[in-house]
């Protein structure tokens, strides 16, 4: 480790990775108890937590801008969504239903929808690659009227034809050797965004990122892509039409 890096850590100009802290603890022969505490602190320092109750106040657009800046600086975005359609693929009407359910005050919904739709312009940047994995359950989750859901399914099928956008559908029939219950998004190999029921986490430790990259790879093996994915979307749309209501 260079002296300049050690100096930046000592003066608070650089947040050390968990690996850095472990290496330094080993170098000074720290006891196991002390080392464990230091590693916990390092992990906490490299994990940002944003509570939904704060994000969904008038500052929501500011957070959307922060995410858009992070997406703008990334060349590869890998996103897994088990519950709803990913925000970058949502129609405005579908987004309105998602953002209305349980989390937003009515005064914030219009601005929240607008800021989410504005972020979608990045999909047409051919210098970027997008990989989406969506479960069949997320596509069938009826938090909106059938007409809105049908338009949303058609939107996903259309975007899946973009050269830089890869959409994978994980059908109910697939064997999935992974237990992922939360949405996560990997930006290059430098950051992971994770949504929980009450908060959004930003993970920047190399070890955490590696685990999510591996999880995404495992999930992708269970997904259908390209024509097969569009066939899955068509099958789901046919079922929605039959159910009606």
Topology:
Elements: H1 3-10, H2 18-27, H3 32-45, E1 47-51, H4 52-55, H5 60-72, E2 76-81, H6 92-100, H7 106-119, E3 129-135, H8 136-140, H9 146-159, E4 165-170, E5 183-187, E6 191-195, E7 199-203, H10 206-220, E8 224-225, H11 226-243
Parallel strand pairs: 2-3, 3-4
Antiparallel strand pairs: 1-7, 2-5, 4-8, 5-6, 6-7
Would you write up a description of this structure?
This protein has 245 residues and is of the alpha+beta class. The chain has two domains: 3-45, no CATH class; 48-243, 2-Layer Sandwich (Endonuclease, Chain A), CATH 3.30.870. It has helices at 3-10, 18-27, 32-45, 52-55, 60-72, 92-100, 106-119, 136-140, 146-159, 206-220, 226-243, and strands at 47-51, 76-81, 129-135, 165-170, 183-187, 191-195, 199-203, 224-225. It has an eight-stranded mixed sheet with strand order 1-7-6-5-2-3-4-8, sandwiched between helices.
* Net shape: elongated
Oligomer classification = single chain
Total individual domains: 2
The CATH architecture of the largest domain can be named as 2-Layer Sandwich
User: Residue-averaged pLDDT, rounded?
Assistant: 87
Cα-atom radius of gyration:
20 Å
Q: What is the CATH superfamily classification of the largest domain?
A: Endonuclease Chain A
Query: In terms of per-residue confidence, which ranges show pLDDT below 50 for 5 or more consecutive residues?
Result: none
Strand arrangement across the biggest beta sheet: 1-7-6-5-2-3-4-8
Q: Main sheet, how many strands, which sense, barrel?
A: 8 strands, mixed
Proportion of residues in helical segments: 40-55%
CATH topology of the largest domain: Endonuclease, Chain A
Write the H/E string, N to C. HHHEHHEHHEHHEEEEHEH
How far is the N terminus from the C terminus?
64 Å
Helices, by number, come to 11
CATH class division of the largest domain: Alpha Beta
């Amino acid at each position: 480790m260079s002296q300049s890096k050690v100096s930046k850590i000592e003066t608070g100009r650089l947040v050390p990775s968990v690996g850095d802290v472990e290496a330094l603890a080993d170098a000074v022969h720290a006891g196991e108890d002390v080392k464990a505490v230091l590693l916990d602190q390092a992990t906490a320092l490299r994990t940002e937590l944003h509570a939904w109750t704060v994000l969904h106040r008038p500052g929501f657009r500011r957070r959307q801008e922060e995410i858009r800046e992070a997406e703008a600086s990334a060349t590869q975005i890998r996103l897994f969504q088990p519950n709803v359609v990913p925000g970058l693929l949502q129609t405005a009407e579908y987004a309105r239903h998602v953002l209305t359910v349980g989390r937003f005050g009515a005064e914030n919904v219009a601005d929240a929808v607008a800021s989410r739709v504005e972020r979608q312009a990045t999909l047409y940047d051919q210098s970027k690659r997008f990989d989406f994995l969506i479960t069949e359950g997320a596509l069938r989750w009826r938090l909106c009227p059938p007409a809105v859901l049908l338009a949303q399914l058609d939107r996903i099928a259309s975007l899946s034809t973009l050269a830089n956008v890869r959409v994978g559908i994980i059908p109910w029939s697939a064997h999935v050797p992974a237990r992922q219950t939360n949405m996560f998004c990997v930006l290059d190999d430098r950051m992971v965004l994770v949504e929980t029921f009450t908060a959004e986490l930003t993970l920047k430790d190399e070890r955490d990122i590696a685990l999510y990259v591996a999880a995404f790879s495992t999930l992708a093996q269970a997904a259908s892509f390209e024509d097969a994915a569009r066939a899955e979307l068509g099958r789901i749309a046919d079922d929605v039409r039959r159910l009606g209501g």
